[in-house]
Amino acid sequence: MSSSLLKRSCGRGLRISSEISRSKNTGIRNKSTEAVSETAKENLTWPEYLEIRRGKRRWETAVTVPCSFLGFAGGVAYFGSLETDATKPIMGLDPLFFYGGCTIACMGLGYLLGPAIGSACWRMTHRRTLGLIEAKDREFHKRIVRNRVDPTAQSATNPVPDFYGEKIGSLHQYRQWLRDQARFRRKARFSEE
């Protein structure tokens, strides 16, 4: 009976041919893979986190462009519909220049609000993993603060490279950021001596 349960296959180890033993093993395997997948869901790897971070930045950029255009269109619609009298200056400026400046200011307001709106939209679509992302975000920012250079040593010829690490979107870019920080430190140290 034991010889019928176990067969030797060519180079693949022991193979179980009994249906009973197969069903017992698959039950154990399913439970173990479920446990592994739950722990994997609880921990984000650095490449996954940086990919999520890059996606969030893309969302913010993608929403900024339409918000800028909407701000500009709203400024044109509002300030273009106002009656103007060219003989009465507004704050010492010709009304056409003043309203044009206000229209551009509306576009700037849309540009400033775009990333906030994009971030809020991104947060609504990623609610399930938000706790993991925020925990990894705190750890990432601790690493950035620990490894970034002292900005007081910057000069016109040696500016600080990406002080907040905003452009980091992959492990390669993180390593490059670390190299840039080290290069800045060397330049700053040798210029003092």
Structure report:
By secondary structure, this protein is mainly alpha-helical. The protein has helices at about 1-5, 20-40, 45-80, 95-125, 130-145, 170-190; strands spanning about 5-10, 15. Residues about 1-25 and about 30-35 have low confidence and may be disordered.
Spatial sequence of strands, sheet with the most strands: 1-2
In whole angstroms, how far apart are the ends? 84 Å
Biggest pleated-sheet summary: 2 strands, antiparallel
Sequence stretches where pLDDT stays below 50 over 5 or more residues: 1-25, 29-37
Output the radius of gyration. 30 Å
Number of helix segments?
6
Q: Considering DSSP H and I runs of 4 or more, what fraction of the residues is helical?
A: 55-70%
Query: Structural class, judged by helices and strands?
Result: mainly alpha
Question: How are the secondary structure elements laid out?
Answer:
Blueprint lengths: L1 H4 E3 L5 E3 L2 H24 L3 H36 L13 H31 L4 H18 L23 H22 L1
Antiparallel strand pairs: 1-2
Key terms for this structure?
single chain; 193 residues; mainly alpha; two-stranded antiparallel sheet; 6 helices; 3% strand; disordered N terminus
Compose a concise summary of this entry.
This protein has six helices and two strands. It has 193 residues and is mostly helical.
